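Budget justification note: compute hours in this period were largely spent on complex prediction jobs such as the one shown. Inputs:
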Amino acid sequence: MKILASYNIKGGVGKTATAVNIAHLAARDGRRVLLWDLDPQAAASFLLRVRPRVKGGGAALIKGSRDLDAAIKGTDFERLDLLPADFTYRNLDLILDATKKPTQRLARLLRPLAAEYDLVVLDCPPGISLLSESVLHAADVLLVPLIPTTLSVRTLDQLSEFISGFNGHRPKVLAFCSMIDRRKRLHLEIAERLPTERPDVARTVIPALSLIERMSVERAPVTAFAPRSTAARQYAALWAELAQRGL
Amino acid sequence: MLTGEDGRSSVDVVRAGLAPRFSLALSGRSRTLRQTWLDTFDWRLYQARFTLEHRTASGLSDYLLSSGNGEQLTVSARSVRWPGMAGALPPGPLRDRLAGLAWVRALLPVARATSTVRQLRVLNDDLKTIALLTVNQLAVPGPGAAPPQARLLVTAIRGYQAQTGWIIRALTETAGLVPATCSALETALAAAGRRPGDYTGKVDLQLTAAMPARRAVTEVLLQLADTLQANVPGTIRDTDTEFLHDLRVAVRRTRSALKLCGDALTAGTQQRYAGEFKWLGDITTPVRDLDVYLLGYDQSADGLLAATAAELAPFHAHLCRQRETERAALVRALRSRRFAGLMAAWRRDLGSQAAPRRGPAAGQLAAGRIHRAYRRVLGPGSRIGPGSPPESLHDLRKRCKELRYLLEFFASLHDPAIHRQAVRDLKGLQDCLGEYQDCQVQLHELRMFAGQMRTDRRVPATALLAMGELAGQLGQRETEARSEFAGRFADFASAANQQRFQALTAGARA
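Corresponding output:
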C-alpha cells in the first residue's frame, strides 16, 4: 500500500481537487483507493457527496477507540472509498499531542488497511502543524500543488528543507504548477522554467479552469463528469507522471 | 436476494416502496448475461459456502467468486476451457483463494443460465448512491426449465449498511417483495434436475436398527456401486486424480462389506463377486500409486538439501511417462466388457436380494461385526512392540480399515457424538499406520524406478543421486511414523475409547 498526500503549507492552491481527481483516476485504473479527507472544511467529502461526520469524531480515530475501517464510506465510484472529514478534525493537533509518538501516529493507524487498499490519498489541511508532520512521516509521496509565484517556490524550498531534516523515512516530494492563469506572464514563465530546473517539479501543469471549479456544482471528480475535458486530461497526465515515478 | 410475489420485479414497484426517503436512478442499459456456475465434482465450493460464476456479456467475460458472508472477488478472463484446475485462471487473489478451496480437484460447469440484468442506484438526499439494486430476470435452458423468476439483489455500499437494512424492510413490508428461498445457482440446478451437494464420496445412508440386515447391507452396497460408477467418466477422462481415488475407495469398501457382512446376502453372492472386485481394485493401483508420488512431488523436491529440483526433473518425467502407460491399461479395463458385465450383474444381484423371513436385524449385525472388528484391532495391536516386523503393522492397518468402513456403513445407527469420537481416535491410528505403509511402498517403488531409469542413457547420474536423497526423506518419515505408533495406539486402546466401543456394540453377539 502506497500513501500519497496532497499537501501544501499554503491554502487555496488546489489540494482537494488534486486529491479527489487523482484518487478517482487511480481507482479507475484498477487500484483499490482510500481517500482520507483530513481537512475539517470537508471539501473532499462534499465533492463525493458523503456527509462529513465520523462517529466519535477525530479523537476516536486518532486514539484508536474506533477503527478507521468502521468509519469508511463507499463512494459512487468503483474501488474508491472515502474516510470522511469531521468538524472535530480542527482539534487534531491537540488530540495528536496527547498521544505517544504523535508524528508516527497516522502511519500506524493506516497500517492495518494495507491488505485492503493499494493506495491511500490524504487530502491535508494547509499549514505546518503536528498533523502535517504526522502526514509527512506517513506519506510515500507528497504531491504539492504550487501556484507559480516566487513566494510559492520559496514555501516548496522550506518544505523540502524541513523533510531533509527527518531521520529514517522521508517522503518523495513532487510539486506541480497548479491554477495557472494563462493571462499572467509570471505564471507562464515560472511554470515553463521550474520543471526544467528542478527534478522535484512535474512536467504536467494544471491550469485554472472553470470546469475544475464546477466540481463543487457537479459534486464529482472532473475526471468523472467531464472525462474528455482539458482539465481531466491534465489530471490524467499528472497521474501518469506519478505512476511513472513509481507510485 | 428478493423475488417479486408474482415472479416479476418492477422498477416502479421498487421506486414506490422506497419513496419518499430515497430515490432511484437507472444505471446504464439492461444487458444479457450468460452465467455458468463452476464447482468441483464433490461440491467443495458449495460446502464452503462459496459460488464461482463465469459471467459473459457484450464486452464482459469475468469470474466472480462470492462467499456466504458477502465477500466477492472478480477476475477478467477469456478462453478458459473447463473442466480444468483453478490454475487456468489469471494469477491474483481470486485464483489464490480458489486454489485453496478446490484443492487438487478440477472445476467443472455445474449449471447454466441466461439473465437479463438491469442495475439501479438508490440515492439519498445528497443524490449519493447508498445501495445498488440488480434486477435479474433469470432464464434457465433445458426442456424441463422452470419459468423465469425475477430476482432483486440488494448490495450495500460500504458505510451504508443501516440504510440497506431499511431498504430491504421497505421492499418486503411495503412493496410486497418476498425474500428468495434459494440462490440463482440452486434455481438453475433445480431446472436441470439437480441439487447442490448431490455427490458425496462418503457413505450417506439412513438405516434403522430394526430393518433386516440383508436390506441394510444391500443399501450400503448399492450406494457404493453408485459412487463407483459416478467416478468412472472422470477417471477415464482424467479430469483430476480424485475421481480414481474415490473409485478405489468405493471398490475397497465394497470388498470389505462383502468380506465382513456378505453372509447377510443370499448364498453365493460373496463368492461370486469377491474375485471380480479384487481384479477391479488391482487394476486401479498402479495409477493411484503414481498419482500419490506426483501429488507430493513438489513438496519432496522442495525438501531436497544436497540435490536440486532441476536434478530431480528426470524422475518427474519418468513418473509421468509411467503414468501414461498405466493409465492406458486402466482406461482399457474400465471400458472393457468385463467391467460393464461386472457392474450390470452386480446391480442385478443386489436388486434381487429379497429380505429373508428370518435373520438378524441391521442393529444386531452392525454391533456384532463392529465388535469383532474392534477386537481384531485391539488384540494384535497390543502385541506390537518396537521389535515387531513391518508386516504386523501392515496387517493392523488393514484391520483398522475394516473397522473404519464398518463404522461408516452403520453410522446412522449410532449416537453421533460417540461415533465421532470413536472415529477420531481410530483415524489418528490409521493416519500413522498409513504413513508408515506409504513410506515403505514408495521406498520399494523408488528402488524399482531407479532400476528402470538406470538403463536409460539419457538419465544423468545426478537424477539418481537426487532420488537417493528422496529415499532418505522417505526413510526418515518411516522412522517417525514407527515411533509415533505406540502413542496413537495407546489413544485408541484407552479406557474411554473402549467404553465408547462398548456403547456402539452393546447387544453384540460374540
